[in-house]
Amino acid sequence: MDNEQLQRQVGRYDNLPQWFEASCHQYGSAAAFSCQGATLSYEQLESHSREFAAYLQYETELEPGDRIAIHLPNLLQFPVAVFGALRAGLVVVNTNPLYSASELKQQFIDSGVKAVVTSANSAYLVEQVLRHTRVKHVIVTQMGDLQPWPRSLIMNLQARYVRKIVPRYRIPQAVGFGACLQLGRHRELKPVAIKSNDLALLQYTGGVTGSSKGVMLSHGNLLANIAQLKSVLGEVCVSGSEVAIAPLPLYHIYSFTLNCLMMLETGAHVVLIVNPRDTAGFVGELAKWPFTILSGLNTLFIELCQHQEFCNLDFSHLKATISGGMALTRFTENLWVDVTGCPILEGYGLTECSPVVAIHPPHLDRRSDTVGPPVPMTDAKIVGPEGEVLHPGEVGDLWVRGPQVMQGYWNKPEETAQALKPDGWLVTGDVARISDEGYIEVIDRKVEVINTAGFSVYPSELENLISCHPDILECAIIGLPDDELGEVIKLFVVSRNRRLSVKDVRDYCRERLTSYKVPKQVEFRNTLPRTNVGKVLRREIRDEELRKQQRKRRALTRPPIT
Questions:
Q1: Do 66 and 114 form a contact (C-beta atoms < 8 A)?
Q2: Is a pLDDT exceeding 90 seen at residue 455?
Q3: Which residue among 83, 229, 260, 449 is least crowded, i.e. fewest CB within 10 A of its CB?
Q4: What is the mean pLDDT of residues 323-336?
């Protein structure tokens, strides 16, 4: 599909509700989402989301453009709430249910949310922050809601009284999710005029400039990225035939756009995994389905391949494995292909781009260390330190432009101006190079490049190489301040072999790296800190090490006790 055809495809709908209703009408009784043994068809998804939208219109004071937080894990209630909110003209704020109360408070205040949909398991956190926010409406759902009777009752009772995973909370104005659907069932949904450039999503991210901020994504941004993804993955996604496994949380933009939006465009059956960290439970769920598409990221693929029951699964239906969220290492890619026989399509994106910028086309051979060419209707260039456009193969700052690029950061005009140029180019904050054929190789985050002895060292490059060691499961590279070198390189290793020594690791590095890239310090750990999605948190590791350095300096400068 060329860019002109794609532009016509994007222009078919003014907004996400129009697109959603068309998809539900097209695929009707086919399965849309499954979770914990229950399935919603496209017809049921449309019906429940309409009921929820009608509830919001008739039973609350919310107006189009108001923000509503969706504070849920991967449950059937998530897509119902999201599409119901969008159909009522509201702006969705995807919120991590594992946030602390302080993180929740910060996001709710910044976004100005007036309503929250939360689970009973997380409602106690919402209770703690309500008085500091503008929230007037709280909707609480239990794990078993939308499950068939009597399974719904059993699941809810088990969660509260057997597993005891529902902390006590008291929110007098809270309304149950099921009650909302009942109240909206006999109401007629009011049409809402929504334009393509109207705001659909406030998606929070650390993003290009480091601090947490709300990325403003319009209906048009998301519709464009749906069409862009479909144009690339359409070769493997047969309309109405795919079973897609969604282990990553839908509140994360990568999973949201791929599994909650694009898969509905193709009429896929999406299987939601509530807790992918329970690897045994995850594998048990996989065994139930003839899955054809699986999305994940580097750390998840490693964990699965280490599980014997996963290795014994039937992968004969698996056509596409999609990787994003963090760099894919060669070790992981080779391991995955050995176990499943399915190549990985690595993509690259950022929240500011809805999020997909590039992805490896399924019909082309994997080009090592690249994330493929930009998706259609997307421009990319490499910019030097003086603002000059660099030639193919040269390393510099990656800038991108396309219809999926954000409108800006919520209530942050200065940071918006820093990241988004007047002519539409987005400064991604990533260091990259582009080949003669237009393939993008993302080298690292600019803020994480290590400067040692006058040389620039890219952590991802080292991690990719070191992770190929047969005894190393995963690793992380950071730079620490040093009076002599500027920064020294420290390596953190998670190993499968307890006999592996620091000398072994450094010898391995010396054989493969120039001297200034060899880590000066090596530390073994049982685990590395990760985001809720599974991405290794280099910044958290570095902050921890900096605190240790400060404590040592204070101890050395402390006057002796007399």
A1: yes
A2: no
A3: 449
A4: 89
